[in-house]
# Entry
Amino acid sequence: MYNGIGLLTPRGSGTSGHVQNNKFNLRSAPPLRAQPGGNISDMEGPKQVQPDKSILEHKSKREIELAVAQEQAKLEDEGLPEADIEEAIKVYREMVTEKFKTSRAAEPQGKVTGGDTHEVAQRKIAQMNRLQKALNVQADIKEGDAFNRELQEQKRLQAIEEREAKEVAKVEKQREREKREKEAEKERKRREKEREKERAQRQQEQEEKERMREERTAKYRAEWEQRVARSNDQQSERERGGRSSRGGGDRYGYEGR
# Structure
């Protein structure tokens, strides 16, 4: 017999008297019971034990300081100078703190067992949050809501309204995007027309410059040809005058005296 459980004596029982738990007795959560005059939707399920963050923080600091004290004692036994020990302990404390944070963030996601009560509660909350995200369970769901027809109908209508609102927003967004695209296309065509106009204007100016240059060239060429012709005429007259003076006669053949 142990703690008031079991037989007073194994004599005549056909057993050894060893007390052990029943493996076939599956323990379940206590049934929900509504208060008198209450509704099943007002009942609350089992509450999750919340960890005390101050206790967890204190335990973490205690573990860090314990590791630092052990390392300091080890360095003192080696006979290192005090200044070197302080510098090494400062670096070691930062390293241990970072390592502790990393180990906390990379805790196993399996069965929640072992450790302090607050640690178990913290790991259980993290496990339930991962399960809630994996199953896409809403956080505001209460036990018994699935059997409340009015609430389910209200949620169904609300989901329909939200879906219709999303569709309307999607259509409005599509219209707004098409409107922006049309405005962008209109602006692009306007800029293209302006560029074409500027290009035509530059081409016209270039043609006008080319025409004026050709006119100047033709004018200069005509003036040059006139000067050349005038010069040739003058030279021809000088040559004729020179020949007549060298000949010494007139046009009737009389020699000059």
About this structure: Confidence is low (pLDDT under 50) at residues 251-257. Residues 149-247 form the longest helix (99 residues).
